[in-house]
Amino acid sequence: MFQNVKYYPGDPILSLVDKYNVDPNPKKVNLGVGVYYDNEGHLPILECVKTVEKQLAKQNLPYSYLPMDGLAGYRQACQNLLFGPEHEVVQCGRIATVASLGSSGALRVGAEFIHQWFPQAEVYVSNPTWGNHISIFEGANCTVKKYPYYDPETHGIKIDELKEFLLQLKAGNIILLHPCCHNPTGIDPTTSEWDDILTIIKERELIPFMDFAYQGLGEDLTADAYAIRKAVDLGLCVFISNSFSKNMSLYGERVGALSVVCPTADEAKIVHSQLKFIIRRFYSSPSRHGNYIVDNVLNNPDLFRQWEKEVTEMRDRIRAMRIRLHNVLQTRIPERDFSYFTKQRGMFSFTGLSPQQVARLQSEFSIYMVENSRMCMAGLNTSNIDYVAQSMAEVLK
Ligand code: KET
Predict the structure, then answer these.
(1) Alpha carbon distances (Å) from 367 to 137, 294, 341, 370
(2) Residues 144 and 122: beta-carbon distance below 8 Å
């Protein structure tokens, strides 16, 4: 009966975790999946989350279904976080926001909506991008193509090529953008480059889809939203997927949201209704617990401040690791320029290692990073960083 079913060999990022877990080497280091570990190598539970957990435990709420689109307080908090509560789009009700199963779920629901209501639209992703972007949109039967982005020569963005490319695209196509902490390269446009990119998107009548999985881990919660706010200020309609996996360390709770900024509040109501219909047919409603946690953290000013502080600590720790890795490598191999490690932002770094060097790191040193040379800086800590830097220097020689 299942003779024709083909074996799925696994995801290149998630499969690394399985390999890492069975590696008996006590020195092993996991720099594969985009997960933040603290300096002790543990997955943190944020203090703001612990406080809410205690409150929720006391309340002993029954396990009712959530509405299809999630808790109203949660959805409002997501809008406030994306735009600031005073922003005109928030005040006027021009955003359709639904809770989702992480940013992945938001992307999938958004892809379904796009395929259903804009069947001609092609989806353009950066070259390179998070591999699952391509899978998710192709899984919704969208045609996916790539736009030029990363320049391995300069470890920067091919900004002129990118702009020229956008200028020749047909109106109505979707441009998938990473508003901050580009995955996998760690290279983001400057604010003036964003202005140029978004102005072309506006002129060409393209539709931006912003996947915002790392808010707060680039510059800060507000600065990281620059591209999103700018797009809306230019009068663009925007799809936004956001996530609390990384910035609230709630990975397994699968908490995210899809927001669609519409020209009018009436259109937002209609779009919202269709998003609910998609959700109903996919999985009916989101899970409760994560919605409650985030709702309580974001809507309580003290807990919000506590969260902001904890996000800052995560961001600063990653930065410190970048600087230290850079310093060790630069001392070991002075003829090579490693300054890109400190220019990149967010969790990831494109190390520039060849696939053979990545494989050697894994087989000889039990250091796991993605084959495309992406390394998760948040897996580094003061105990393993020297070992990683020395091993990298060894394979780079
Ligand atoms: N978008 C991007 C750009 C992203 O890097 C991830 C996760 C997601 C969406 C999904 O997030 P979530 O809200 O948990 O559904 N990236 C890491 C984990 C993964 O591959 O699933 C990673 O790149 O390692």
Answers:
(1) 31, 34, 18, 10
(2) yes
Closest CA to 231 of 258, 262, 208, 212: 208
| Spatial separation of the C-alpha atoms in residues 100 and 188, rounded to whole Å | 25
**Which among 69, 158, 188, 246 is annotated as catalytic?**
246
Ligand 1 geometric centre to CA of 288 (Å): 21
Instruction: Quote the DSSP letter at residue 377.
Output: G
Max intra-chain CA distance, the chain: 63
Query: Do the Cβ atoms of 268 and 258 come closer than 8 Å?
Result: no
Q: Are strands 367-368 and 348-350 parallel, antiparallel or unpaired?
A: unpaired
Across the 397 residues of the chain, what is the mean pLDDT of every consecutive 10-residue run? 95 91 96 96 97 97 96 98 96 97 98 98 97 97 98 95 98 98 97 98 98 98 98 97 98 98 98 98 97 98 98 97 94 92 94 94 96 95 95 92
**CB contact at 8 A, 368 and 12:** no
23 is catalytic: no
Minimum-distance ligand 1 atom for the alpha carbon of 184: 23
Q: What is the reported pTM?
A: 0.97
Known catalytic residue: 246?
yes
